[in-house]
Amino acid sequence: MTKFFGTMPSGEQASLYTISCGGITASITDCGAALMALTVPDSMGNLDDVVLGYECAEDCLKGSSYIGATVGRSANRIKGSAFSMGGRVYPLTPNEGNNNLHSGPDAYHLRLWRVVSHREDSISFLLHSPSGDQGFPGNADISVTYCLDGRGGLHITYDAVCDQDTVFNLTNHSYFNLAGHNHPEKAMGQLLTLPARFFTPADEESIPTGEMRPVSGTPMDFRTPKPIGQDMEEDYDALHLQHGYDHNFEVFCNPCAVLHDPESGRTMTVSTDCPGLQFYAGNFLSDCGKEGVFYGKHSGVALETQFYPDALHHPDWAQPVVKAGSRYHSETVYRFFW
Ligand code: BGC
User: Quick check: 245 and 280 in contact, CB under 8 A?
Assistant: First the structure.
C-alpha cells in the first residue's frame, strides 16, 4: 500500500509505503527513508505501533530528533567537524557547538530517497550523494532496504559504494516504546539488557575520551535486565548522565540489546554487524508526533547500531572508512517476540 505523505520543499511528493509479513506491518517514507510506524502484536494478540513517528513529511523536515530516519554518511559525532583522510583535511559543517552531529545540517533524513523496489514484505531506497555532499569525499550511491522476515524480524540493510575513499557509517534512528508510541510515560519503565562489558565514556560535548571503560559498578551496567529509568537520576557526574542515557556501548555479542515490556509481553532484540550501539533515552525529544501525541523527554529509546562516535579520530578503533570502489554492507535486525 502507498499513501501520499506530504510535499518536499522541492515540490516533489513524498509517500508512505507499507510492508507486511508474519503479523508485523511497517510504514516507511521516502522522506529520509524513515520508519514511521511498526505495528506488532502483544501477548493477547492486540496490535500497537511501537515506534515514534510523524504524520507527514513536513513534520519530518521540521523535527529535530531524527525520528525513524536513515542517518548518514556518518552517524553520531565528529569532533571539531573535520577529519583527515589520505593526507587531506575534510571540513564538515558544525551543527552542535563545534562538532558535527549526524553529518550536519544537510542531513540524509531531509532528502527524498528513490524507491527502487517495493514488495509485500520489503522496500528498498536509493540515494545519490555527490562528491562534497556534507563535506565528504566521493560520489556515493547508497541503498537501504527494510525487509520483514515473517519470523518477527525487521531487517535494515545498508549497501553503498563510492568512487573515492570515503566515510560510511549509516544507522537507523528509530525510537522504540514497546507499550505503543501513544504511551510516552511507559517508555522508561521497560527492561533493557545490554551484554556490553565496556562503553565509551564521553566529555560534556558527548565526544568519547578514547577510553573503553568497564560498565561494572556504574549505571551503565545493563548485563542483567534493568528498567531503563532506574539509575538515570544517579549522581554520576563523570558519566554526564544529567539528561539521561546517551552513550555508546561495545557490541560484545548478538543480540547486543534486548528490550522487554512486562505489561504487553513484547520483547525486541537487536542484532548487528556493527561494532557499537548508541543507547539514547530520548533526552532531548520534544516533537509533535502521530495522532497528535506529543513526544517529550524520554518518550522512547533509540538503539542505534554504528561505529563508535568520533572513531575517525581514534585510529585504534574500527574505522568507518571504505576504499574507492569497495562495497559497504551492514545489517541490523530488530526482532520481536510476543
Ligand atoms: C545522539 C543524541 C542526539 C540525538 C538527536 C542521537 O543519536 O546520540 O545525542 O541528541 O541523536 O536526535
Answer: yes
Q: Check pocket membership of 297 for ligand 1, CB cut-off 6 A.
A: no
DSSP sequence for 85-108: ETTEEEE----BTTBEETT-SS-G
Indicate the top mutation candidate among 54, 64, 66, 298 to test ligand 1's pocket, ranked by most ligand atoms within 8 A of CB: 66
Catalytic residue from among 102, 109, 173, 181:
173
Q: Output the tens digit of pLDDT for each of the chain's 338 residues.
A: 899 999 999 999 999 999 999 999 999 999 999 999 999 999 999 999 999 999 999 999 999 999 999 999 999 999 999 999 999 999 999 999 999 999 999 999 999 999 999 999 999 999 999 999 999 999 999 999 999 999 999 999 999 999 999 999 999 999 999 999 999 999 999 999 999 999 999 999 999 999 999 999 999 999 999 999 999 877 776 788 888 999 999 999 999 999 999 999 999 999 999 999 999 999 999 999 999 999 999 999 999 999 999 999 999 999 999 999 999 999 999 999 99
Which atom of ligand 1 is closest in space to residue 206's alpha carbon? 9
CB 193 within 8 Å of CB 225: yes
C-alpha 280 to ligand 1 mean position (Å): 7
Establish whether residue 206 lines the binding site of ligand 1, counting it when its CB lies within 6 angstroms of any ligand atom: yes
CATH number at residue 186: 2.70.98.10
Q: Give the pairing type, strands 34-41 and 47-49.
A: antiparallel
**How far is 243 from 62, CA to CA, in rounded Å?**
23
Residue 292 included in any domain: yes
Query: Half-sphere exposure of 70 toward its Cβ, with a 13 Å CA cutoff?
Result: 30
Contact (CB, 8 A) for 99 and 207: yes
Could you give the number of structural domains in the chain?
Answer: 1
Instruction: Report if residue 293 sits inside a domain.
Output: yes
Tallying the residues shown for the chain, one arrives at: 338
For residue 215, being part of any structural domain is answered with no
Say if 210 falls within a structural domain.
no
Q: How far apart are the first and last CA of the chain?
A: 25
Residue labelled with grid coordinates 542483567: 224
Q: Which domain holds residue 111?
A: 2-190+275-337
